[in-house]
Amino acid sequence: MPFITQRFFIQEEQKAFLWLMRTLHCTQKEAQKILDKGWLTQEGQAIHKSQSICGEISLTHFSPSPLKLPIVLQTPYFVIYDKPAFLLTHPKGTFSHPSLCDALKSEFGLQANPVHRLDKETSGLLLCSINKTYESQLKALFETSQIQKTYLALVRGNLKEEQIIDSPILTPPKGAKHSNLQIRSTLSPQGKNAQTHILPLKSLKDSTLVQATPLTGRTHQIRLHLCSIGHPILGDPLYGCEDKFAQAYLESDLGEEQRESYFGAKRLMLHAYSLKFSFLGENYEVSSPFLIDNISVIP
Fold it and tell me: Is the dihedral of CA 257, 259, 263, 265 positive or negative?
C-alpha cells in the first residue's frame, strides 16, 4: 500500500520538521510538505511547521510497495521506465492506488523521483532521477527544452498533412476536482503559448498513426491539439467525446466495452515513444514500441 499511517512515541521534545527529517531521511522541504498536508498529527490535530512534538503522534507517509516495471535504460544518474497505460506516475492523495513511484522508490530508494510525468492513460518512456542532485539537473534540461520527447498516437480519421499546431492552451485551475470536467485544458487566447509538430506515419482503417512532438509542455497538449484539428486520439475519455461520456469516465471505472463504445478504443492510444538528450557529456536516445493488442504498430 503506497501510503501507511504509523504511531510513534517521542520521549524528548523536539521540532517536528527535524524529527521528520531524521525519521524519513528526507530534506527539510519534504518534511515541511508533509506538515503542510496535515500528515503528522497528535490527538487528531495537525502539527504545524513551527511546532515541537512530544508524546504519541501519528504519521501518514509514502511507503513504496514492491512493483516490477520494465526498465529501458539504467545509468548511475537516472533510470528510464516503460510505463504501462492505466498506471499513475505519482501516488494520488493518500489512496492505495499503485503508481510508478512504487517501482522506482522500492528499487532505488526514497530520494529517487520522476523527472516529468505521463498521464495515467498514457503508456511509454518516463525518465526518473536516482537522487535529488540529478533530479534538479535533469529537470533543468526539460525546462530549457534540451530533452526531445516524441509520441505516437492513433487518431480518428484520415490525417494527411504534416503540420505544426500553434494554439495557446489554458490549463485547468489549481484545485480542480478530478470528478469535474474543469480538469480539461482549453484553447484560449488567454492561455500559454503551445505548439505541437504532427507527422502522419501510416493510414489505417478509419484512423491514422501519427508522430507528435510537443515543442512546449502544457497539460494534455497533444490530446487537445489533435482534437482541435478534428482528429482526436482514439480512446481519449476527455477530448473529442460527448460531455456525458467524459463525465461517466470521471465518476466511475468503465469496462473495456463501454470505453470502446464511448471513446473508440479500450485505452487512450497515446504512447511516449522516444527520448533524446545529452547528460554529463553522454548522448542518449531511447525508444519503446507502441503495442496494440501486443503487436507493435511500427514494424
Answer: negative
Cell for 53?
A: 512534538
Backbone torsions φ then ψ of 159, nearest 5 degrees: -95, 120
Domains and CATH numbers, the chain: 3-62 (3.10.290), 71-144+274-296 (3.30.2350.10), 150-268 (3.30.2350.10)
pLDDT tens digit sequence for 27-65: 888 888 888 888 888 888 888 878 888 888 888 877 666
The C-alpha cell of 119 is what? 498521464
CB-based burial, 77-107: b 16+ in 10 Å, e otherwise: bbbbbbbebebbbebeeeeeeebbbbbbbbb
Closest by alpha carbon to 270, among 212, 225, 230, 231? 212
- Is 100 in contact with 89 (CB distance < 8 Å)? yes
pTM value?
0.79
What's the whole-number mean pLDDT along residues 85-95?
A: 77
Q: How close are the terminal C-alpha atoms of the chain, in Å?
A: 39
Residue tagged active-site, from 82, 119, 236, 293: 119
CA dihedral sign of residues 211, 215, 219, 223: negative
Specify whether 253 is catalytic.
Answer: no
